[in-house]
Phage portal protein (Paenibacillus anaericanus), 403 residues
Amino acid sequence: MKWYQRITGAAKAAVAGWKGAGFDFSSWAGRTFWGIDNSKLATNETIFAIITRLANTMSALPLKLYRNYEIITDHEASDLLINNPNPNMGGFELINKLEVSRNETGNGYAVIGRDIRAQPSSITPIDPTVVTPIINTDDGVLWYEVRGVGGTYYFHNMDMIHVKHITGSSRWKGISPLAVLRNTLEYDKAVQEFSLSEMKKKDSFILEYGANVDADKRQKIVDDFKRFYSENGGILFKEPGVNLKEIDKKYFASDTLASERITRSRVANVFNVPGSFLNDSEGQSYASNEQTMMQFVQMKLTPDVRQYEHEFNRKLLNEADRRKGLYFKFNMGGLLRGDTAARTAFYQTMLRSAGMKPDEVRRLEDLPPEGGMADKLWISGDLYTIDTPIEQRRKPGKGVSEE
C-alpha cells in the first residue's frame, strides 16, 4: 500500500467518525434486504440450532467494565459497548450479530467510529463477505479493506473489531466451520432429499392374472384395480387366477435417524460443544447437567470469551485506561452454578469459610444486597465476623465471653 493510499484511507475513516452520532455507515455499507435466504444457516435445522444457541449464550452473558474487581459504570466506552453501540441496536444485538457471523463465515467484523478526540463513538457490525484483511508491505501493519456501496475503504486494525475462528500463521481470516462441514451437510441433504422423495411415492403393486383370463375379464380386473388404487383403498375382490403383490419401498426410517445422528455428532465436534446441545444423548457419559456445562464453559466458551475481551480491551480502551487497571469482562459464573442443591452446598461452604460475604451470595442470586453485617466475612464458630476477637467467641459448653 502506497503512502497516499494510507493517507486517503485514514482520512476517510476520520471523516466517518466525525459525521455525528446519527451516522451509521449507510452511505457505503447500506443494503436493502429482500428475497429468500438460501444460506446453510436458513436451510439446515442442525446448523441453525447450534449457531442460535452459541450466539444467544454469548450475547446473554453479563458484560461489565472493571477495575480491580470493582464495576465501573461512568466510562464512555462501557456505556457505548453495553448500552448503545450505534443508533440501530443495543449491546446484546451487537454481540449476537458478531457471534452469528463468526460461526457462519468464520469471521465477525464491526467498524469502530471515533470522534475528533479519537475516542470510540460507535460500533457497527458489517457484512463479513465484503471485508478482506491485508498487510501493508511498507510497515507490516494490518489493515482491513471494505468494499462498500460508495467504493473501497481501508480501516486500521485498531478501528475494526475482528472475532474469528482458528487461523494459521499465514492467515488473518478465520476458517469457516460450515466450510469444514461442507461434505457432511451435502451428505445430510442428499439423504433427506432421497428419504423425502421415497415417502412421496405412491404404493406400487404387481397385478398378476392367469393366461386363461379372456380380454373382457382382464379389462374388468384392471378397471377394478384402478378404482381401488384411486380411492386409496377399499374393497378389492380377488378372483381365481388373479394375484396382487405390493412392491416394498426402499425408504427406512432408521436410515434417516442414523444419518441425522452422524450429522449432529460431526456438527458438535466442529463447533466443539457437547452432543447434548444438539439433543444427541447417545454415548453421553456425564452424570449431571453441571458436568456438561463445565465441559462447555472450559473447552468452548472460555476461549471465545477471552477473544472478545482482548478485542474490546485493546481497541475500545486507550493506553491510559489500561494502565489504570480497567478491563472488560464477561461473567460466566451463572453457567456454572448448578442446580439448587449444588448452589446451596457451595454457598454454605463459602460462607462458613469466609470465602464469600452474604451480600455477594445475594447478588449472585439476583437479590438486592442488605449491607451492614451482611457485607462482612463470617467464619463458623458458629458464626462470627472474621474480625471478632478469639476471646469473644463461643467456647464448648459456654456462652460468649463478656469483657
Remarks:
- The first strand starts at residue 63 and ends at 67.
